[in-house]
Amino acid sequence: MKFNKKAQSEIITTVLIILLVLAAIIIVWQVIQGTVKTGTDQVTKQSSCMGINLDIAGVVPGNGGYSNITVTRKPGADDTVIKNVSILVGGAVMVTTALDPSLGVLQTKILNFTGNTTPLVSGNKIEVGAVLSDGTKCDVVDSMIA
């Protein structure tokens, strides 16, 4: 039996092209899968922040940077545990205050802190955001001018 060398060459070329296409598909899939998984994890974490409603009830700037901020948790996302509250002054995180016990729905806490880097003075924009028990940092939910 005599084989045509041209036919063998075309078969080998076709097989190599198919293998290259499969390799490219695998590489692209790995990149897409990693990106989708990362995005899914972020969405899952941030979805636990939905419905959290904190309200700055009052701000009392103090002497020497020592200040009081009164924060009330309004209804919404009732089963979400808030362990910390981030306090931002002028857009920069001033302090993350640990809450022990956690801040429950319709509870009010007075947060005391010392402004080491940015003293809290009248006219400063104060913002608060929740930090959940799993470490997820939620977006700012309320702001007030001191």
Structure, explained:
The protein is an alpha+beta fold. The protein has 2 domains: 1-47; 53-145, Immunoglobulin-like. It has 1 helix and 7 strands; from the N terminus they run αβββββββ. The strands form 2 sheets. Strands 4-3-6-7 form a 4-stranded antiparallel β-sheet, with no helix packed on it. A 3-stranded antiparallel β-sheet has the order 1-2-5, with no helix packed on it. The longest helix has 43 residues, at 5-47. The radius of gyration is 28 Å and the shape is rod-shaped. The termini are far apart.
Order of helices and strands: HEEEEEEE
> Looking at the structure, what is the overall shape?
rod-shaped
By CATH, the superfamily of the largest domain comes out as Immunoglobulins
**How many runs of DSSP E, i.e. beta strands?**
7
How many domain units? 2
Strand order of the largest sheet: 4-3-6-7
CATH structural class of the largest domain? Mainly Beta
Keywords:
single chain; 146 residues; alpha+beta; Immunoglobulin-like; 4-stranded antiparallel sheet; 3-stranded antiparallel sheet; 1 helix; 29% helix; rod-shaped
Could you outline the blueprint of secondary structure elements for this entry?
Elements: H1 5-47, E1 53-60, E2 66-74, E3 82-89, E4 92-98, E5 108-114, E6 125-132, E7 137-145
Antiparallel strand pairs: 1-2, 2-5, 3-4, 3-6, 6-7
